[in-house]
Amino acid sequence: MKPIPKEDFTLLSGKENISEYQWNKNIAKHFFCRTCGVYTHHIRRRDPNQISVNIMCVDDILIPRDIKIKQVDGASHD
Question: Each residue of 6-19: pLDDT tens digit?
Answer without folding.
Answer: 899 888 888 999 99
